[in-house]
Amino acid sequence: CLVNGDVDYVEVKFKLEQGVEAKEQEPTEKVGKTKKDDFKPIENELHRVFDLAEQIQREMNDLRKTSGDEQLLSESITTKVIIIGCISVGIVIASVIIQVWYLKSFFRQKKILQTTF
To answer: Which pTM value belongs to this model?
Structure first.
């Protein structure tokens, strides 16, 4: 936590780094390089690129897994919606049959509809 005990306005800036960027690399500029140290900056940059590639690979694998999970969820929801739709249609058809049967018996009872067999 930061606490400003003074009455003056204080501006604080943070630079948040994560992943490969957060790793501390050896400085690439050295004074008095020897022939052996000439490749040190290139080696450091190569390590950074490899770390970055590994991070990208991990993120891609996570995205593939998440995408697969979301696809399974979508298929499951689609199946449930189809089942609920079929049940709704069944209920509507059943209510229509019951209403027709009730009205038919009602009109027969009131002698509006004649029974013919």
So the answer is: 0.49
